[in-house]
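Here's what a typical entry looks like (RTA1 like protein):
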Amino acid sequence: MGETAIDYFTYKPVRGAPEAAAAIFFIVAAILVWRIGRAQAARWMYILVGTALAEGIGYILRIMCINHISLGLYISMILFLLLPPNALALFNYKVVGEIARQSNVRPRHFYLRPKFITWFFFCSDVFSFMMQSIGGSMMAHDNMKVTGKWICVVGLAIQLGFLASFVVVAIIIGRDPQYTVICGPRQVNEAAAKRRVMWTIHATTGLLYVRSIYRLAEMIDGYGGKLYSAEWAFYVFDFAAILLMFILYIVFFVGHNFSRKANRFEQV
């Protein structure tokens, strides 16, 4: 007999859920393309579109794994569902970095410099991404499973640490009235616009933190552990958390505050 999905997942994956998840994320990507294009928002906002598409592909790979499992498919699925949310952290870093750059405030501390906010946290995100990629690939091989697991754990722990540091920087910028954003449609003043943008950043970062803690706990619990084998936990703390982030990005769309129509909104 050939290998079955249970041999890899350690449980029988539910059918219907990954199909629905894939469709939802592709719809989310289409909505974001429409919103970004209509607002003539900065091109870096397409980070959200790419992430939604990657999530959709991850769930298509999950469907394929349920139907015809193979090692290559399983590794691809792990990577597509584990790594793309890192780009959402990058998006939030970019938003706060752009606020600092646009405001033309002389920073009191080096960590408030626009380039530092954008590139320091970007590099931390790439480093965490690479560690999780390497670890996730290694976990698919029996002789490297334990090493790969702990590489992933370190990568996720690093991400959590930098996310916490980013929250501190975002709070400082959010509370300082010198930092402003351009008003979007139906936003009465710059202060109200800034509150809306910063609320979106804090809410989505909080959800990303929850998702990262779940992934970290899953890795520590180990392959075949109680958390790894609980499919409901995956859909609650990974799928639902990421989907809620996208809903917030769509409902509280910040593209109007970073429009290409204004010359001052060029990329760092």
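The chain has one domain: 5-257.

More examples are in the samples folder.
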